[in-house]
Amino acid sequence: YVSINGGIGSGLYRAQDTNGDDQFDTFSKLKEFRGGGEHGPHSLRLSPDGKSIYVIAGNHTDPPGSPDASRVPLNWSEDHLLPRQWDARGHARGKLAPGGWIAKTNPQGDHWEMVSIGYRNPYDFDIAPNGEMFAYDADMEWDMGTPWYRPTRVVHVTSGSEFGWRSGTGKWPSYYEDSLPAAVDIGPGSPVGVVFGTGTKFPTDYQKALYILDWTFGTIYSIHFTPNGSTYTAEKRQFVSRAPLPLTDVAVGPDGHMYFTIGGRGAESALYRVSYHGKESTAAPSWDDDKYKPMRDLRHELEAFHGVQNPQAVPASIKELGSEDRFIRYAARIALESQPVEQWATGVLALKDPVAVINGVIGIARQGSEKFQAQAIEKLSAIDIGKLSKQGKLALLRAYALTFVRLGESSIPVKAKIAGALEEHFPSGDNELDRELSRVLVYLDSPVVINEALRLMAEESEAGEINIPEYLSRNTGYGSTVANMLANSPELQKVHYALVLRNMKFGWTLEQRRQYFQWLADASAKSGGASYTGFLLNIQSEALANASEAERAALDSSVIAPPPKEEDLPKPEGPGKAWAVEDLVSLVDNGLVNRSFENGKKMFAAAKCGSCHRFAGNGGATGPDLSNLAGRFGHKELAEAIVVPSKVISDQYRAMQILTTDGNVITGRVTNESDGKITILVDAVDATKVAELDEGDIDEMTPSKLSLMPDKLLDKLNKDEVLDLLAFLLSRGNSESPMFTKN
Description:
CATH class of the domain at 36-85 and 95-274: Mainly Beta
Number of strands: 27
Radius of gyration: 32 Å
Strand content: 15-25%
Distance between the termini: 65 Å
Helix content: 25-40%
Shape: elongated
């Protein structure tokens, strides 16, 4: 059996000796593979029972058309909560799930079953004597310096497994509950041959090792597994290395020695042998005598339900949805998803254990219809995220995301309620949690996520010790690029915040917009992979596209515009009244619905708010920007700030009374102090009216107890006009807010 990539046509072929002369005399294609090149179809492995053949392929190879069976649910999807960016240089643009895959076929090549998906470009894999399969997947080196970079890694290929490769920025983090993590990360490199040490005359520990070959850095690693629950953890060790040593493939010979080849891309080829000479025992090891075998057996029992309908699957699987073992939880969910959703959705929605609920809802999201959306969100919302483990919190956030993506959006009030429950946990201080919290909060249009994320982006990062791996020196071309990046590495967490914040259309102050774009400019000085700078430019471009015309104009302008003239301001209809704090709180608490966005915008000008304050890119510059007011004020605080502006005065906007040495009194806000001079804004409305004094000319400077903001600004507005204005302020400039009547 031969896997052919390109040439006469990619596919699975069979060569046969039909007359017993020890020569192949027939050659036939059993299955065409649509794909080729370096990410095309790759290696083959015989199943342990000798009755099937496994095939592995890279992400530029389509799965076998219309498989007869699949251990992986066939409705795979991208499952991104926020829009993905394709690679900035165009690599794998348009390539969608499932990515690279492993499938199984019979000797005739006419029955195909999907086994595992979500790889980038795994070249080879092998099966341990106890039947457990492991594969060595490739990285996308152009992604280095970004939070979506995934190093080359060894994964435990269990039934129905999904490892989350998606193109561009869309790669799933390994903590996503609907995927499985790596057994061990290896680092940058180019995966090629893979083989277990079974049959070698090596010491016992090395007979049980998996040997993986890296072409780029000329290294054979031995991967040593330790049973852990129903899966394994792993340790990598350098086994053979040299520069240059362009490794290609490896095999164990019948003589107990290991053989490997080198070559590729014009390099001279050669065959090497590895033998053991020493006194350690080379007796064949035992594979299944550890304490975790019962857990692996349980996983195998659940995996027997994958891809087949069986009435016993539902009770057996629901029982294990809350398992502490992630691989068992995963196997249980895939077993459920293999059954009609109507047979188990009700049982899942009746569960009490939060981990079981989360995994069950993930299954409903993936296999159910929109009729389950409200119930699924209700079950998730009843879970206290603060009481979950870290993985539980990440799983809950992923369950929310999948429910929104697959079953449809919730109403804006429901989304606001979920956001409110999550906001108090952001930031958490844990990078992975904060990545997912920020992602979900951006989707929910949280009024606080911009301010908190920008604050984190502005914090100084601790400079860690720079460790340049020794193996990089074995390939000076590629290795020096990686070393330079490590010496000037981008701040991955902040890149993530920049990526997700680009989707926020509303709630930015002008200063926040400037801070954000300045961070992107500064980040371009860091060193990343070949696509790093392009990603930053694309993030900037999309963020600008999501800004309003007024915001873009304000960002481009350094000119301070004079305030509008009194006679040019719109006039309220009235009649007004002397509005008190309690009046405004009562109005807001009774619900802002069926309001008018346009009239609120008009009242923003009529009440002279826009003369001093900027909102969504429009307005004055002497007072604080009110664009993200909804994320900073409760209803009572907002009412007090409008009706009693002198109750709390920010130091940044406090007026000062200045007595000069010649007896003059100047009242205004100090906007700048430098080089022995101070600048005072002397008109609360007109930012162009300033005075400049030498510090030596000041006799006394006293903070004013009165705010520069006048009171009674609402007293000419009637009830509806006040309601429209308050709704406008709390909308952050979003005319689609549920507070407004839809035309």
